[in-house]
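Lab notebook page, bench 4
Experiment: in silico fold of construct C2
Operator: M.H.
Input chain length: 514 residues
Purpose: comparison with the prior construct
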Amino acid sequence: MSPAAPRFSVVVPTVGRPSLDVLLTTLAAQRGPAPELVVVVDDRRGRDTGEDPCELACERARAAGLPVRLVRSGGRGPAAARNAGWRRTASEWVAFVDDDVELPPEWSELLVADLSAAAERVGGVQGRITVPLPSGRRPTDWERGTAGLADAAWITADMAYRRAALEQVAGFDERFPRAFREDADLALRVLGAGWELVRGEHGAVHPVRPSDDLASLRQQRGNADDATMTALHGAAWRERARSAVGRLPGHVATTAAAATAVVAGLAGRRRTAAVAALTWAGLTAEFSYRRIAPGPRDAAEVRRMLVTSVAIPPAAVWHRVRAELRWRRHPPAPWPPPVRAVLFDRDGTLVHDVPYNGDPDLVEPVDGAAQALARVRAAGLRTGLVTNQSGVARGLLTPEQVDAVNSRVAGLLGGFDTVQSCPDGPDAPSARRKPEPGMVLDAARELGVLPAECLLVGDIGADVEAALSAGARAVLVPAPATRPEEVEAAPVVAATLAGAVDLALAAAGRGTAS
């Protein structure tokens, strides 16, 4: 009897581009095995008040037979979005694909063959990226840059990871805010944990998406991510990640020449200023030529290259220096960082649930709530309250009544460092109402901590979902209102509030002592 085919899910981070529809259409048309689940993670900030392109694309994919789930991650970048996605899956393997790739009909068939052939210690299998370039003319600078994806190592435009490897290293480091280096960082941590990474036979097509004249200038923000890689993995990280050095040394020289020319000119040192200016002009001309020569050389491309070749060197140096100074002042801890704040749901978690309660006199803490919060505060952790209060939208409560009940909770259990209350109802789009991540993100921002440094304790699935979408950790403490399927789906369950605090203190590195 042949072994069962590996089970896999697909995670797609997106910002609502039209290409998402194309990707899901090609995924639905696969002639090989279908994924157990497709998680589309909308990483835009806020919510649409009209037609939602992500919702529409997912609806069409469901109609085509794909098991699609849409979640939102609050605009925190592709690393955070991928984490929000894979933590919703249960498959042995998770295939990450970008929303601007297209999957050939044989993709899933070849993917499953690659996963079946993977040895026990293979933690990830990279797909082969094909970038179609225009025929009949030379590619532009932007097109050549995109074509470089075909040779890049461990990029998550098409990369499958074993769930056990993702769990061991806690997924992507969400301190990488852009689609740059977050995949290399994950690969190095997976390799460092003793797994192997291999290149498979499955592959995706990555068309060159449209760009504007300043796209290459904005890409210089990636120099900050290079500084983060150095801070986390040491100066030799490029060799281990199979990454080219790039042009930063040349950009430093160009920027230094420009700065010298300006300073010397202001100081009246004309000869020095002239030499420095000529040096800057020569370096800038050489950089421009290297970008123009392989391209189509039409007027628009030449103009684009000349303008950005002047602006790129100082921008690259600025982003790199700024990030290096930041990490020198505050060296980054290994991922994931320890918990620094514990957030609590209110009704059903800290106090007995009285539906749409606007009367402070009806507030009754659950057993052990005061002691649990006292332990959190004694450990030096911040505390927060995050509570849905849809009674306001339903006309059953006033904001003043909600505030009065929250004040009564604080009076009985001690004050909170942040209180987040959402009055929105379930029928209107809301970025804050749990299970959306908004309140958790707002609490983290107000406390001055990363979302990953927060742990949310709640009693229903919406609490857990809000935490996962925000990148926080979550502990479910079942209450009478908790459904069995919510308990089954929760990543961590504690029988009591005290048990949840034990877990929070352990995640903070403070043990479980009271």
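Observations: Residues 212-333 form one domain. DSSP finds 19 helices and twelve strands in the chain.
Next step: discuss at group meeting.
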